[in-house]
Design a protein that fits this description.
Elements (H helix, E strand, L loop, with lengths): L1 E6 L13 H11 L3 E7 L7 E5 L2 E6 L9 H6 L1 H12 L6 E5 H11 L7 E4 L4 H6 L7 H13 L2 E4 L2 H9 L7 E3 L22 E6 L8 H9 L4 E6 L12 H11 L6 E5 L3 H10 L2 E3 L9 H8 L4 E4 L2 H6 L6 E4 L4 H12 L2 H19 L1 H15 L1 H27 L1
Parallel strand pairs: 1-2, 1-5, 2-4, 5-6, 6-7, 7-8, 9-10, 9-12, 10-11, 12-13, 13-14
Antiparallel strand pairs: 3-4
Helix pairs in contact: 1-15, 3-4, 4-6, 8-9, 8-13, 11-14
């Protein structure tokens, strides 16, 4: 297939994470023989065209100022991006368009207007879910746009069962919803490899997003209830770069108040390889966040053979088999987290068993090879010829059922 992926985040921008969903999926699809072009809005940090990997071309589309923009500013320029894409596809038409995020979905809807090119949509995170989990800044207009995009897409790929439920409540047709999570690099995140240096203390690791500290205060409170344990926080600022205000400073202040600041380390942003080293060095990887749409960090830890204790929400609820690959807890519940931690750490054999099962689970369900194949199968079901054939088959089956019923009634 000729596959067009659209992303609002430039994977070649300085500091960008090249292991993000679109970039890794593009490489997985290309490795399976598909021709993949990844389209990103031109932000002035990269050339017009580039190569992400073997078989994957990146095109930077001019749409608005060539600099970083806020989501609201970017949304205003999506019609321009759609026009550029549509013009280019008059010559090099893709078989399917896959958009990542609601902004890219806006561009995709405009670009395919008047054609039969199917759109596949991955939101990553829904405004309705963010608002339910306490984000009061999520706009109602974004919710309406996500609903519109979801209903126009031939398929919407949900990252978790929870997201699939949200999509159904948005009146996205259930046959169009398929649960296909983001994957992890099981070549980097593997039990085999070096571990980060550590002291003789029990090591707990938490991975936080770069712009927030979800549930970290609950994690610090739990750490204070586990004597002798150290907590390493990956993501966000390093200990030397802590801002004077904000959520990470609040976490540091709480650690000071609880007299465990010497046991809490802010490791900062880590490359995938260094993060894997840190995860392998941990006794347990923990989270108490109220909202984890993908649960990627926990799955990366599982792939490294490290047990996890995470909230039973979002991607975590699908990824972690409670009592087999880790433990599920209530979000932001420091007392429950501390209780589960102490019980698990007191049973080394159980830690080992969880780690083995976790690595197997991550390899079998979340490798990019499998995610790529599942995604390609979703694309194929959306192709115009395939959709028409399935509709004809369904109609023929309905007709056969009616004839059978008539024969049964009339003898």
């Amino acid at each position: 297939m000729r596959i067009a992926l659209i992303t609002a985040c430039n994977p070649l921008a300085p500091g960008a994470d090249r292991s993000d969903h679109p970039a890794y999926l593009a490489r997985a699809l290309a490795s399976q023989g598909h021709r993949v072009t990844l389209y990103a809005r031109k932000d002035g940090t990269s050339p017009q065209t580039a190569v992400l990997g073997r078989g994957v071309c990146i095109e930077h589309v001019p749409a608005g100022p060539a600099r970083n923009l806020s989501p609201e500013e970017t949304a205003r320029h999506m019609p321009d991006m759609a026009a550029c894409l549509s013009a280019g596809w008059q010559v090099n038409r893709p078989d399917v368009v896959h958009a990542f995020g609601w902004l890219s979905g806006l561009a995709a809807v405009g670009a395919v207007r008047g054609t039969d090119i199917p759109i596949v949509q991955t939101f990553g995170s829904l405004a309705a879910a963010e608002r339910r989990h306490g984000d009061v800044n999520t706009s109602a207009s974004r919710t309406r746009l996500e609903t519109l995009i979801g209903r126009k897409a031939a398929a919407v790929l949900a990252g978790s069962s929870e997201e699939a439920g949200d999509l159904a409540r948005m009146a996205v047709p259930r046959p169009a919803i398929r649960v296909i999570p983001a994957g992890v690099d099981t070549d980097v995140f593997t039990p085999d490899g070096k571990s980060a240096p550590r002291s003789g203390k029990i090591r707990l690791v938490a991975v936080a997003a770069s712009d927030q500290a979800p549930g970290l205060c609950a994690v610090v409170r739990a750490t204070a209830q586990v004597p002798g344990a150290e907590l390493v926080i990956a993501g966000g600022p390093s200990g030397r770069q802590l801002p004077r205000t904000g959520p990470f400073r609040q976490v540091a202040q709480l650690a000071t108040e609880l007299k465990v600041r010497s046991r809490v380390t802010f490791a900062g942003e880590l490359s995938p390889a260094r993060l894997a080293d840190l995860l392998r060095s941990a006794d347990v990887v923990i989270s108490a966040a109220s909202y984890e749409p993908s649960g990627t960090a926990a799955i990366q830890a599982m792939a490294c053979g490290t047990p996890v204790i995470v909230p039973a929400a979002g991607g975590h609820a699908d990824a972690v088999i409670d009592g087999t690959t880790g433990l599920l807890i209530a979000p932001e519940h420091a007392g429950m987290l501390a209780h589960r931690l102490r019980r698990l750490l007191a049973t080394p054999a159980l830690l080992t068993a969880f780690g083995i099962a976790a690595a197997d689970r991550a390899r079998s369900r979340y490798s990019w090879d499998r995610i790529g194949r599942e995604t390609a199968a979703a694309y194929e079901r959306c192709l115009p010829g395939r959709a028409a054939a399935e509709a004809a088959l369904a109609a023929a089956q309905d007709e056969a059922d009616e004839e059978f019923e008539a024969v049964a009634v009339n003898g």
